[in-house]
Structure formats: C-alpha cells, structure tokens
Write a structure and sequence with these properties.
Elements (H helix, E strand, L loop, with lengths): L4 E3 L2 E3 L5 E6 L9 E7 L6 E6 L6 E3 L7 E6 L4 E6 L8 E8 L11 E4 L3 E5 L2
Parallel strand pairs: 2-11
Antiparallel strand pairs: 1-3, 3-8, 4-5, 4-9, 5-6, 7-8, 9-10, 9-11
Amino acid sequence: QVHVVESGGGLVQPGGSLRLSCEAPGSTLSYYTIGWFRQAPGKEREGVSCIGKGDGNPYYAESVKGRFTISRDNAKNTVYLQMDSLKPEDTAVYYCATGIDRICSISSGSYDHWGQGTQVTVSS
C-alpha cells in the first residue's frame, strides 16, 4: 500500500505561483509513475500532468502546458508540480496519484493510490 500525501496548496492571486509537493512515506516514488489531477466544484476530475518512472518524460494537459512543470527530486523522494501564471480557472482540489505503467498518462484509471488532495484557490 502506497500512502500518498500532497501539500503546498493555498490562496494565490491571478498570475501568481504555487508549488505542490507529492510524498509517499515508506515508499520510493521513483519506482512509480506519478500523476497530478484536479477537481473543481461541480466538475469531473481531470488530468493535469504526469511523469514516468525514474526520470521519465513529463506530459501536460493543454490547459496547463507552458505554465505548469512537473519534476522529481529522488533524493527527497518527492514529486513537485510548479504552477506559474495561475488563473482563476485553475482553482480546484489537486491530487497526486501513483501508478505502475512505464509510460505515464493523465487517465485516472492508470493510477492505483491517491492522496487526499490539497486545495488551490486563485482569486484576487
């Protein structure tokens, strides 16, 4: 069982930045594909970004491409989602999830273990 924990959410003004962290105490995140997802009130969960095992290539949804960056720090056993140029429509609960596929995707069905989520609110 992988226990996934997200952190780093908060309130930020439009155009601002936040960095989300994904950790899994007791597990080695580099063994897993990692996906970031979000769910806004009244909307379905959507995939935001993912990164393959080890130093796998990242993938981004069109809505965040050029603004969000996913990265790994294997020494810290942490995966980050750097979010820049935030917009009000980025407001959502953000979830981190682990999967075992060699190549990542932003399909939620590819992931087995999920965190509880962290709230991101973009508002002036």
